[in-house]
Amino acid sequence: MNLLAACEAFVHVCDARSFTVAAARIGIPQSAASRRVAALEQHLGHIVIDRDNHRPSRFGATLLPYARRLTQLAGRIEEIAGQSHLQAITLAVPEGCLAQKVARLIRDAQKGSIDLEVVYAGWDLGDKDMSDPEPRTALVPSPPDISAWAIPLGVGQAHREETGPFFLDCLRPRRRLDARTSRLWILPEDDVSHIRDRLYHLRDSNGLKPGQVERAPSAQAAALAAFRDDDLVLCTPGEAQRFELHWRPLGEVRLNRTYAITGVDTTEVATLKDKLWAHIADVLGAQAIEY
């Protein structure tokens, strides 16, 4: 027995006080409506409709609110399924992404029949619980081997405008005891093993002091140190421009901040990655990695 179909027939008969009218509303023959109600009575072991006046029996009156709720929920499920293609995909992007490029991403998504909502989030979004309702997808820093987008990292400086690559050995301490040694600040989002460990290796191999390559508490604090103390900031070209720093590529090593897309719904993730791959690269200021 189809319990949902039987409850639907039962509810409509109670409302219409007629098997014939109820059957017409459901779109089935009158005989089919009668069979469904009879099957429900046999399944439950109780008469649910008085055949003389088509009113619910005493047991049927108790059952009716629950049957009505069941049919309403089933209708809502079908409605949600029919509108699933209209639901927006919410994507969290790093807070440094330019609003102009984010707006262009949303327009490009709409051209591809994707209703995209974009929110800004901190660099540590990848550590949060993505089972929360919002956002459902996010661009997060990830190891290179599982990433789709890469942004080159270099050095941002405030008071110098040398051209060409920057070599870490130029920070080697001078012989004068009172000479100040500049530091290279690693931004929080780049404090990951595939970036941090390579910089520490370069620091040690070039004879720098341990404190000359450190993690900054924030991007703003690192930029302040660059202007105040003539320190340097490991950053992307876009971040250097935002903080009005002069950017140079690294000379001894090639480092990238790499991003992947993650989310609760694998279908949403695949849709964004497949259809907006190059557009997301533009928002990040990144190079798209072939996958």
UniProtKB/TrEMBL annotation:
InterPro entries: LTTR, LysR_HTH_N, WH-like_DNA-bd_sf, WH_DNA-bd_sf
Protein family: Belongs to the LysR transcriptional regulatory family.
Keywords annotated in UniProt: DNA-binding, Transcription, Transcription regulation
Identification of the protein by name: LysR family transcriptional regulator
SUPFAM superfamilies: Winged helix' DNA-binding domain (SSF46785)
Superkingdom of source: Bacteria
Domain HTH lysR-type stretches: 1-57
Organism: Arthrobacter methylotrophus
